[in-house]
Amino acid sequence: MDPVNVREFEALARERLDPVHYDYFAGAAQDEVTLRANESAFARLALVPRILRGAAAPALDVTLLGADASMPILMSPTAFHRLAHPDAERATARAAAEARTIMIAAMLSTVAIEDITAEAGKVAADPALWFQLYVQPDLGFTEAIVRRAEAAGCRALVVTVDSPALGRHERNDRNAFHDLPDGMRCENLRELRGGEPGSVRQVVLSPEISWRHIDWLREITPLPIVLKGALHPLDARLAVERGVDALLVSNHGGRQLDTMPATIDQLPLVAEAVEGRVPLLLDGGVRRGTDVVKALALGASAVAVGRPILWGLAADGEAGVTRVLETLRAETAHTLTLCGCDGPRAVTRDLVREVRCCH
């Protein structure tokens, strides 16, 4: 099968992945209600195009926190790329650089951040990479890994704040999958104390994480801080007041607290609270170019995709990731054209309305 859309890439990836590893990537918390809602919520939104606007062919480029991207589609941070393909994050970094978009490298990557940025640098002279962080109780390690990200050339810090505890993944429990297999390690964790070096079991998700940790990060690094996981409008407002540079509206792909609302449903509430003071990004359920444009209409500056990148990687390594990105790019451009828009900045709220039932 030659995939022509993201869902067909997932079908091909499922054929090629170890079933246990497919379940790890595809699964989510408990009954996976939020996982399904993230996608189905987009189907409840209809696009209402404008006509006869004489718009030029759409230019998709955006600038986010000083980083230029050729389209409003970023790579969301996802762990353990080596489970999908031997080239792991090296392949995804090259594909992101080739597409001239932003890769958010995961703290739990199976390639060290220095090697990820070096690989992207083989393709682009000035690649745009951001680094995703789980703040650890060991603030010495946390600061050390932030320094590594800075030195490697990462341009922003994406702090995941929706994980005071690990979500309960029943698929993983059934498969007894709780750590990487022999020969694979989270290469950014080798200096973290406790457990076998590089084991995901070293990571501590603590309910004690608070706004003081965000204040502390603001003090120790000049990097822009993107807060990932703020869904409540009051939290979004607090984040802006405390100097956060951008928000990534995310429910962790449904992998943490089940029955959270779909991110696209929550986006307008967050946008209203933020009032345009910082850029808003969105991840969760984006599978089509129409989804991208709906998110732009509801207040996002760009979207980020996670699982689709993994499906492309599993299907065909770097080439598969490139095809996923280019498929979403082409669909987004086509949707913008049909809506009478010459680019992301021309998308307005009136282009979207809610319909009574899903298609």
Automatic annotation (TrEMBL):
Domain FMN hydroxy acid dehydrogenase per the UniProt entry, residue ranges: 1-357
Gene3D superfamilies assigned: Aldolase class I
PROSITE patterns per record: FMN_HYDROXY_ACID_DH_1, FMN_HYDROXY_ACID_DH_2
Any one GO CC term of the record: cytoplasm
Gene Ontology MF, one: FMN binding
Cofactor names: FMN
Active site: 252 (proton acceptor)
Keyword presence, Kinase: no
Positions annotated to bind FMN: 77-79, 160, 228, 250, 283-287, 306-307
Record-linked Pfam families: FMN_dh
Binding site for glyoxylate: 24, 132, 134, 252, 255
Keyword set, alphabetical order: Flavoprotein, FMN, Oxidoreductase
Family annotation (PANTHER family): 2-HYDROXYACID OXIDASE 1, S -2-HYDROXY-ACID OXIDASE-RELATED
Annotated family: Belongs to the FMN-dependent alpha-hydroxy acid dehydrogenase family.
Protein name per UniProt: Alpha-hydroxy-acid oxidizing enzyme
